[in-house]
């Protein structure tokens, strides 16, 4: 039986030409429009409400979302690099083919989240709350999950005994 690998996010090569702004996120969250094929760099957001936002085939680099609300949001084919989600509310989030690299999310809420084909690499999600979440083909690599809560979460078809799961710290 062939082992399943986590599917990598698909992000078009043309992203560098489409530079998103803080207003792009805000306008999309107000209008129920999806953000697609956008590149966001060095955004500094604090206590913004992006409830129900849908983001696909996009990349975020060096962005801060300190204490922002992303309840009921949907991310598919999204890359986050060097982003800070500390204190954010991502309850009821749906993530498919998402990668977090060198990100931070201290005390972030992910309650009732759905994570499919997600990688969290070299990231710090200490004290995060993943209660009642569902994980399917998810890998934590070199991640700090100390004091995080995973009560009543379900882990289905996760990658086991792979280098991508080595080095995670979970208490």
TrEMBL record:
InterPro entries: 5peptide_repeat (IPR001646), PA_immunity-related (IPR052949). It holds the Pfam family Pentapeptide. It comes from the Bacteria. SUPFAM superfamilies: Pentapeptide repeat-like (SSF141571). This is Pentapeptide repeat-containing protein.
